[in-house]
Amino acid sequence: MRCKTQLLAPLINLASLLVERGEAEEAIGLARRATQRDPSSVEAARTLASALRATGRLAESAVVCEQLVRRYPTSADLHNDLGFALASLGRSDEARASYLRSLELAPDSAHPLNNLGTLCRAQGRLDEAVEFFRRALSATPTFAEAMHNLGEALAAMGRTDEAVTALRQSLAWRPELAEAWNSLGNALRQQGDDEAGASAYREALRAQPGHAGALNNLGLLQWHHGEVSAAIGSFREALRSQPDFDRAHSNLLFALHGEPSTTPAELLAESRAFELRHAPPRASLARPHHPDRTPGRRLRVGYLSPDLRQHSCAYFLEPLLGAHQREAFELFAYAEVRRPDAVTARLRSLFDHWRSTVGLSDAALVEQIRADRIDVLVDLAGHSADNRLTALLARPAPVQVTWLGYPGTTGLSTLDYRLTDHCSDPEGESDAFHSERLLRLDGGLHCYLPHADAPEVSPLPSSRDGHITFGSFNQLAKMNDGVVAAWSRILRAVQGSRLLLKSSALSQPSARSRVLDAFASHGVAAERLELLAWTASTRDHLQLYQRVDLALDPFPYNGTATTCEALWMGVPVLSLAGGRHSARVGHSLLSLVGHPELVASSVDDHVDRAVELASDPSRLAALRASLRDEMRASPLCDAPRFARSVEDAFRRMWSALP
Question: Which domain covers residue 140, as residue numbers?
Answer without folding.
Answer: 108-209
